[in-house]
Amino acid sequence: MTTGWESSPGFFAVLAAASFFWGSIPFNRVFSKGTSAHKWMTMLADYLKGALPVFLLSPEGLAFWNGGAAISAGDFLPAPLPWVVAVLLVLGHCFSPWLKFRGTQGVAPAFGALTFLSPFAALIGFLGFLLAIAIKRNIPLANLAGLGVATITHIVIEPSRKSLGVILVLLFVVLLRHEGDMDELLENPETAT
Q1: Within a 13 Å sphere around the CA of 32, how many CA atoms are in the beta-carbon half?
Q2: pLDDT one-digit tens code per residue, 83-120
Q3: Rg of the chain, C-alpha, whole Å
Q4: What are the phi and psi torsion angles at 39 (to 5°)?
Q5: How far is CA 118 from its chain centroid?
Q6: What tens digit of pLDDT does each residue of 174-189 get?
Q7: Domain encompassing residue 80
Q8: Distance CA 33, CA 22 (A)
Q9: CB-based burial of residue 103 (10 Å sphere; 0-12 exposed, 13-18 middle, 19+ buried)?
Q10: What is d(CA 146, CA 133) in angstroms, rounded to the nearest whole number?
């Protein structure tokens, strides 16, 4: 049942802008680079950057905002909206205006979003990431392997395929940001060992 505001173009424009802006916050510049925990804090913040907005649009997140009462996103939000929010925040992360549109690669916020959009796929993707790290000891390769495995897993387990196009766009954006890493791996295959 819709009440009107959530189907207005203004609502979606504000949500799109907020998603992109939230994704564009450069947490790697927020935390002091002098600390040994900088990388871990940045990775956690970037993961949460993807996870929090998608969680807040999930049935659990909506129940949180509704005082614990169960509510379905389908009651007033289009089903692909959390997926679109995920893509916009990953785009914000990858093309941050605060960093002259040269953000980072988008893996942490993409996995954060996938944690709530497709939890099983995110888990299998994370296991793929760990396996690639254990075998190849190459972070960029492991990032690509993990997100690739998560994408394939989601496509296989999602029977309705409503989110197929959106998850492929998400994968494409991250692959685009890894272009240099992929070029290096193709030119110097020994770096992948």
Answers
A1: 4
A2: 888 999 999 999 999 988 887 888 889 999 999 888 99
A3: 17
A4: -65, -40
A5: 11
A6: 888 777 766 676 677 6
A7: 5-192
A8: 21
A9: buried
A10: 10
Percent of the chain whose predicted confidence (pLDDT) is above 70 = 79
- For the chain, helix, strand, coil in percent to 5 are 75, 0, 25
Buried-state track 6-36, b at ≥16 Cβ within 10 A, e below 16: eeeeeeeeebeeebbebbbbbbbeebeeeee
The owner of tokens 């949180």 is 64
Among 3-12, 98-107, 111-120, 164-173, which is the least confidently predicted range?
Answer: 3-12
Q: What does the chain come to in residues?
A: 193
**Total tally of structural domains belonging to the chain:** 1
**DSSP string of 5-68, one letter each residue:** GGGSHHHHHHHHHHHHHHHH--HHHHS-TTSTTHHHHHHHHHHHHHHHHHHHHSHHHHHHHTTT
CA dihedral 56, 57, 63, 66 (to 10 degrees): 80
- DSSP 3-state of 153: helix
- Please enumerate, as own/partner, the contacts of 54-63 that have beta carbons within 8 Å and a separation of 24 or more: 54/82, 54/85, 54/86, 54/112, 54/113, 54/115, 54/116, 54/117, 55/116, 57/81, 57/82, 57/85, 58/82, 58/116, 61/116
Our CA angle for 111, 114, 116, nearest 5°, is 125
- 93, two tokens: 């992360």
